[in-house]
Amino acid sequence: MTGEQRTEYLATLSTIDQGLVVNEDRAVSRGESTCLDIRQGVPEGQVLKNLEARITEGNATVKVEGAALILDAVKAWCR
Q1: Of 38, 46, 47, 76, which residue is most buried, by most CB within 10 angstroms?
Q2: 34: domain range?
Q3: Are the C-beta atoms of residues 22 and 59 closer than 8 Å to each other?
Q4: Domain count within the chain
Protein backbone atom coordinates (compact mmCIF):
# COMPACT_ATOMS: atom_id res chain seq x y z
CA MET A 1 0.00 0.00 0.00
CA THR A 2 1.46 3.34 -1.03
CA GLY A 3 1.31 6.46 1.11
CA GLU A 4 -1.53 7.90 -0.97
CA GLN A 5 -3.44 4.62 -0.85
CA ARG A 6 -2.98 4.49 2.92
CA THR A 7 -4.34 8.02 3.32
CA GLU A 8 -7.37 7.30 1.14
CA TYR A 9 -8.01 3.94 2.82
CA LEU A 10 -7.89 5.44 6.32
CA ALA A 11 -10.13 8.32 5.24
CA THR A 12 -12.69 5.84 3.94
CA LEU A 13 -12.54 3.81 7.15
CA SER A 14 -13.07 6.93 9.24
CA THR A 15 -16.31 7.64 7.37
CA ILE A 16 -17.55 4.15 8.25
CA ASP A 17 -16.60 4.31 11.94
CA GLN A 18 -14.01 6.51 13.68
CA GLY A 19 -13.09 3.55 15.89
CA LEU A 20 -11.59 1.80 12.88
CA VAL A 21 -8.76 4.32 12.66
CA VAL A 22 -7.90 4.77 16.33
CA ASN A 23 -4.82 2.67 15.61
CA GLU A 24 -3.91 3.43 12.00
CA ASP A 25 -1.18 0.80 11.76
CA ARG A 26 -3.59 -1.88 12.97
CA ALA A 27 -6.21 -0.71 10.45
CA VAL A 28 -3.68 -0.93 7.63
CA SER A 29 -2.49 -4.34 8.78
CA ARG A 30 -6.05 -5.65 8.77
CA GLY A 31 -6.55 -4.24 5.29
CA GLU A 32 -3.37 -5.92 4.10
CA SER A 33 -4.52 -9.23 5.61
CA THR A 34 -7.81 -8.85 3.75
CA CYS A 35 -5.92 -8.10 0.55
CA LEU A 36 -3.93 -11.30 1.06
CA ASP A 37 -7.20 -13.24 1.36
CA ILE A 38 -8.33 -11.73 -1.95
CA ARG A 39 -5.04 -12.52 -3.70
CA GLN A 40 -5.17 -16.09 -2.44
CA GLY A 41 -8.58 -16.56 -4.02
CA VAL A 42 -10.56 -16.90 -0.81
CA PRO A 43 -14.28 -16.76 -1.71
CA GLU A 44 -15.76 -13.30 -1.10
CA GLY A 45 -18.20 -14.55 1.53
CA GLN A 46 -15.31 -15.93 3.56
CA VAL A 47 -13.27 -12.77 2.97
CA LEU A 48 -16.15 -10.79 4.51
CA LYS A 49 -16.36 -13.16 7.49
CA ASN A 50 -12.60 -12.92 8.02
CA LEU A 51 -12.79 -9.13 7.77
CA GLU A 52 -15.64 -8.94 10.28
CA ALA A 53 -13.63 -11.07 12.72
CA ARG A 54 -10.58 -8.86 12.30
CA ILE A 55 -12.38 -5.58 12.87
CA THR A 56 -14.54 -6.64 15.81
CA GLU A 57 -11.39 -7.12 17.88
CA GLY A 58 -10.66 -3.38 17.88
CA ASN A 59 -12.38 -0.16 18.81
CA ALA A 60 -15.31 -0.51 16.43
CA THR A 61 -18.10 -2.96 15.89
CA VAL A 62 -19.02 -3.10 12.24
CA LYS A 63 -21.85 -5.19 10.88
CA VAL A 64 -22.04 -6.86 7.47
CA GLU A 65 -22.87 -3.62 5.63
CA GLY A 66 -19.84 -1.86 7.11
CA ALA A 67 -17.61 -4.83 6.37
CA ALA A 68 -18.73 -4.71 2.74
CA LEU A 69 -17.79 -1.02 2.59
CA ILE A 70 -14.39 -1.78 4.09
CA LEU A 71 -13.91 -4.59 1.58
CA ASP A 72 -14.65 -2.14 -1.23
CA ALA A 73 -12.01 0.20 0.21
CA VAL A 74 -9.46 -2.64 0.29
CA LYS A 75 -10.29 -3.63 -3.27
CA ALA A 76 -9.57 -0.05 -4.39
CA TRP A 77 -5.83 -0.59 -3.82
CA CYS A 78 -5.42 -4.36 -3.60
CA ARG A 79 -4.44 -5.83 -6.91
Answers
A1: 47
A2: 3-77
A3: yes
A4: 1
